[in-house]
Write a structure and sequence with these properties.
Largest sheet: 3 strands, antiparallel
CATH superfamily: Winged helix-like DNA-binding domain superfamily/Winged helix DNA-binding domain
CATH class: Mainly Alpha
Order of helices and strands: HHEHHEEH
Strand order of the largest sheet: 1-3-2
Distance between the termini: 40 Å
Helix content: 40-55%
Number of helices: 5
CATH topology: Arc Repressor Mutant, subunit A
């Protein structure tokens, strides 16, 4: 017998004037959220934010991923403007972009306040 999946009801409310995202803001935020939508990228981002600066070489162990996979994901995060890298020797060192963190928090805060 197959188990039944319960789909939660989608909460919907009208946008508060002045708080709704513009088309450009929505596109920008969607790009950042898309970069964070992958569990590996989200974990990498959380490690970089918590550590301040991280060498790609130290990410293999905690993530259980190969260096090419880590490189792929860090480049996606960098393309979204969430992290920046500096090559030192043969390794990349990554750190979060503070301004992007502030902008992400502000955008999510606006969405949160619009839904209350």
């Amino acid at each position: 017998m197959a188990s039944e999946v319960t789909v939660p009801e989608i909460l919907c409310c009208p946008a508060i004037p002045g708080h709704a995202l513009t088309e450009d803001d929505a596109a920008d935020l969607a790009g950042v959220l898309a970069a964070l939508s992958d569990p590996v990228r989200l974990r990498i981002f959380s490690i970089v934010v918590n550590e301040g600066e991280v060498c790609s070489c130290t990410l293999e162990g905690p993530l259980g991923k190969s260096q090419p996979t880590i490189s792929h994901h860090t480049h996606k995060l960098a393309a979204a403007g969430l992290i920046v890298g500096e090559k030192r020797g043969r390794w990349m060192w990554w750190r979060a972009v503070p301004e992007q963190l502030v902008a992400l928090r502000a955008a999510l805060g606006e969405l949160s306040s619009a839904s209350t």
